[in-house]
Structure formats: C-alpha cells, structure tokens
Amino acid sequence: MNAPKGNHVTNFTVPGIKTSQADEIIGILEERMVATIDLQLTLKHVHWNVVGPNFISVHEMLDPQVDAVREMTDTVAERIASLGGVPVGTPGSVAERRDWQDYSLGKATVSEHLGALDVVYAGINSDHRAAIGRLSKLDPVSEDILIGHLAQLEQFQWFVRAHLESSGGELPTADIRRERDAAKAAIS
C-alpha cells in the first residue's frame, strides 16, 4: 500500500473534528513535518562543515538545535497520526514534497554558514507563522503545537543572528533571501 502524499483521506479522526477538517489540518502539518525534517538535516550538515574562528562554539550550539528540531518533527508526526493521517518521513518522500532547494553551502566559515542559516530560519519561521494562521480556524491543539515550536525556532534564529549582529545592532543578512547572498554579506 502506498502512503498518501498530499491526498489525505482519513477514515477517523479525533472527536470534535470532522474528517474533512482533519484532512486539511494533516496537510498543513505534513508541510511543517517535511520542513523540520529538512531543517534538522541541514543543521547537522552545517555542524559537520563549519570551519574557522569560533568553530567550536557554533559546532556545539547546533547539536541541541538538531535535537530540539527532531523532537518537533516527532510531535508533529504523532499529531498527524492522532488525526488519522499517515506521517511519511522517508527521504524520497521528503525530497519530493519540499518546494525549496537543498542547502547551498558545503564546507564554509562560521560567518558564511550562520549568514545562510539566518535565511533558512527566516523561511521556516515565516512558514510556521502562516501555518499557525491557517490552523487558528481549524484546530487549536495543532495551532498550539506549532506556536510552541515557533518560539523555539525564533530563539534559535536569535542565537544565529547574535553571531552576525554588529555592536550597533546592524544585521548584514537583513532582507536577504538567498543563502549564498547571505553567506557573502556575513563576511563583508
């Protein structure tokens, strides 16, 4: 039996939610699950490939973020299952369902990776906010889950930005949307 990919047909769901609503909620949560799977892999990639001054502080900062994002993924996947859905987190399925490109840096300096990660976090945090807005009309439990996750994700972005910010409060990656551009701006 093939797992559903974007076509949610639940036979049951939690009491108080119609199956048609559950299908919509599951679709939103699947988007966030795919994003957090991708984020945890990206963070680990950066952990392995960051070099230069302050290497160890950034290297060690990223592992707790990986662990927290992995836990977020698990919570979202379990919510999908509790709603009657099938959380599919296989590598092929994740790659097929995401609508963004792979992280674009390999081995790079602390500043370059943190500049790029600022863009990554900006994207995932913005998408989490949009999902929260959609869930506010559908399911307060799922909305609450993502609100809690967003609080952590925004804190992680703050950790990244604190390394990039000047003493005057300027952020070299402000308003930059591409990872490589942010990496360049971070070392300028």
How are the strands of the largest sheet arranged?
1-2
Q: What's the average pLDDT? A: 93
Helical fraction: 55-70%
Order of helices and strands: HEHHEHHH
CATH architecture, by name, is Up-down Bundle
Q: Please give the radius of gyration in angstroms.
A: 18 Å
The tally of domains stands at 1
Shape: elongated
CATH class: Mainly Alpha
Q: Write the CATH homologous superfamily.
A: Ferritin, core subunit, four-helix bundle
- Outline the biggest β-sheet: 2 strands, parallel
Poorly predicted sequence stretches spanning 5 or more consecutive residues = none
Strand segment tally:
2
Alpha-beta classification: mainly alpha
Q: Estimate what percentage of residues fall within beta strands.
A: under 5%
Number of helical regions: 6
CATH fold-level assignment: Ferritin
Q: How far is the first residue's CA from the last residue's CA?
A: 52 Å
